[in-house]
Amino acid sequence: MHIKLIAAAAAAALLLSGVPQAAQAKTIGPTGAAIVGGVAGLAIGAAIADANRPKKKIYYEGYAPPYRPGYYDPYFNQAFAPTAGVVCYPAQRLCYNNNGTVANNWTRRVYGY
Amino acid sequence: MTNSNLFRRAAGAAVALTLAVSAGAALADDLRIDDAWKAALSETEGVLDDKQMAMINGIAYSAAAALLCDGIDIDPDKVASATTEILADTPPDLTDDEQLARYTAITLMLGTAKGILLAEGALHKAEFCATALAEKADAKVANFWK
After folding, report:
1. Cβ contacts of B46 on chain A, cutoff 8 Å
2. Shortest Cα distance from B5 to chain A (angstroms)?
3. Model-wide pTM > 0.80
4. Which of B22, B61, B73, B81 has the most C-beta neighbours closer than 10 Å?
5. Do B104 and A47 make contact, defined as CB atoms within 8 angstroms?
6. Which of the 8 DSSP states describes residue A20?
């Protein structure tokens, strides 16, 4: 709510200043305009609000949920060992060594980047 | 079934058992902050594919190590290249608002992963940094460090 209020106040200040918003946006650049105009704030607010989970349209092409609705826990807890001493968590897309440190090299090998 | 087939099957079963036991041991005492990961990941499942999410984790891990460990610095060019690759690979026909929502979700996920990995690293900093420094010294392991 604070973000919206600040963004609204900033936008109002711009309007009151008599400078056309388009001209102001050109001066401060698109990122600055998005921030001052409240667009970026609204996007962050929506992203972190519980009631605003990502919309299906922004899912990657071909995404199919790997778990049934309400069954995220069993999926989250899945693990496998690509080699002795390393465990990978598919829901996290990250591998760890047995001593608890991140196995970055195995994460790269398993997930191919 | 020939003797060599029998041997191969027995050896395979032994390896599978070993790996299962290894995984079980790691699960029993690992330092992963499970609830934080679960809360964060359940919100963004589907926005990134496996490779993209692994890359985000790789960047976040590299950033956490650069903050916690002496002798490790982020390479901004490598991070920029990987991040651009992820951001540019968008689903088709997104509106500007949807592009912004996707960009925001990914940016927040990167920050969240970095924060959790910072916490995990800080819980066992000596081992965390020793592993990171060993990876940095290994020319065969690609990373996001200078």
Report:
1. 54, 56, 59-60, 63, 65
2. 23
3. no
4. B61
5. yes
6. -
- In chain A, where are the structural domains located? 2-58, 72-111
The domain limits of chain B are 1-30, 32-137
Contacts A–B by Cβ distance under 8 A: 166
Distance CA A40, CA B78 (A): 26
CB contact at 8 A, B57 and B118: no
Using one digit for the tens of pLDDT, what is the confidence trace for B58-90? 999 999 999 999 999 999 999 999 999 999 999
Chain B residues with CB-CB distance to A61 below 8 A: 91-92
Question: Measured between alpha carbons, how far is residue A104 from residues A47, A75, B79 in Å?
Answer: 28, 22, 15
Q: Checking DSSP bridges between strand A94-97 and strand A80-83, what pairing results, if any? A: unpaired
